[in-house]
Hints:
The complex is a heterodimer of chains A (218) and B (379). Chain A has ten helices and eight strands. Chain A is an alpha/beta fold and 218 residues long. In chain B, helix 10 links the parallel strand 11 and strand 12 (337-343). The interface between A and B is medium-sized, with 26 and 30 residues.
Amino acid sequence: MTDGAARSGAPAPAIRRDLQIIADMIGPGSRVLDIGCGDGALLYHLVNFKDVDARGIELSQDGVNSCVSRGLSVIQGDADKDLADYPPAAFDYAVLSQTLQATRAPRDLLAQLLRIATRVVVSFTNFGQLGIRWRLAWEGRMPVIGGAAERWYDTENIHLCTIRDFQELCQDLDVVVERAVSLDLSGRARAIARFGPFANLRSRQGIFLLRRQDAPAA
Amino acid sequence: MQADIPGNHVRLAADEPLRLDCGVELGPVTVAYRTYGTLNAERSNAILVCHALTGDQFVAETHPVTGKPGWWDLLVGPGKVLDTERYFIVCSNVLGGCMGTTGPMSPDPETGEPYGLDFPVITVSDMVNLQALLLDRLGIDQLFCVIGGSMGGMQVLEWAVRYPERVFAAVPIAAAARHSSQNIAFNEVGRQAIMADPDWCHGDYLRQGSMPTRGLAVARMAAHITYLSDSALHRKFGRRLQGRDALSFGFDADFQVESYLRHQGSSFVERFDANSYLYITRAMDYFDIASEHDGVLARAFSGTSVRFCLFSFTSDWLFPTIESREVVRALNAVAANVSFVEVETDKGHDAFLLDEPEFATTLRGFLDGAGQHRGLAGP
């Protein structure tokens, strides 16, 4: 498989911090399915700079069309419904970037992802972060985070979780957490373990690399 | 209308006849085709364009019979989406057609008379097998891309299933993996209109010196409605009257839409053969990829390395989005490399022939991406 951009040796242009962390978790040359790939920023980076065989599923037709017009392999589909079509272990990685909280059945979805991919990368907004707690506790207002929404009723988020909630879900699903990274309130990335008890308070985002129990470690 | 068709003609299946799905062996077979652009030294830049039911090989040039621009002039040409300065474009008239490729109006070598209904019933896979022979002759082992809309999209799918190693990328547009019951029904109406015309003479009209133009025109009128959409018809014609201020209280073409359809019918018979219409619509009816794979569509694609990009159009009710989605689901089931774009338009099935900027942009992006993976030089 040729890769003009990577072969030319040009440095990869900057992508969003959380997407860069996800990209760093993904092995070069692997097969990747990005669920809720949006405008394809991560996919484009993976295809052109990590020689990845990348596919995407995106709910919005605008997102799909913009991905395909950039030469990415993307279909219109619904993360909650369409993953059942894929065969087991079809991918090395499934990526769920900032999508988990907008799905109808996050636990089922994660189980599906662990069926079709050996490893799953999940990034999500940590609703346990200090600012959100403050807003709810002192102002009595719901968090409005992600997308262009300005009011609670406009957000796509229907299943909010904290880092602690997510860690518990990982235990329930009996998966190996290979890496757990926090993007803190000032945008720095650190291993969640290094935060100690304050991770849940100080992380804006959690980015987890999960592996199926039956899959060999890298 | 056949003998003096300009363009390229080649005699194929002369030594070894083409074995058709119906069991008949046909040969030799003449294929009429056109090419645009230049085949590169690696022979890796060929795109096969598959035409629809009433299309032909004149993709991107003035049509020799109608004098109109090529049917995909919008997309095929220098600097266009199917860039003839970059790709080598091939399009051949399908088996059973009437623009120079062997079909029911060709002379039967045994009698020297037109085949008429003695022509064997053909299928989409027969058409594709003949195209494969043409590519052999042209020295093309692997197509960079095979692309087509409607029945052309059926051929694209058949190519990907039958000759996956000869296809790098496949673009079925407004197509389906099988012809639906409704579509078979529409085709049957068209065929019955032709066969009800006394001038059809049980298919023997060429020898009898007649032409079933009324039947064929009605077939075209009925089919043409299915190529549009309610809203497109309404936008174009509404209930406007044609060349009059009041209803005639008769059966003239009072309405613009009637006049338009009559024109579609009468101009169609100038360029199309009635028996060809019967044979080609039958081939579409018989199309059902899953049927050869225990009814499981995904099995037809198992292990495929072809890069797919499917297109559908929101207002297409002849080959609705759900048909394309079925194919996408089957491709997902084998983890194939697939893109799928549904284009928002009110122009109905015919949208793939029309100016649809979103369609053109995404198709260009897909071809560029595929070209990069194939190692083709950039635009």
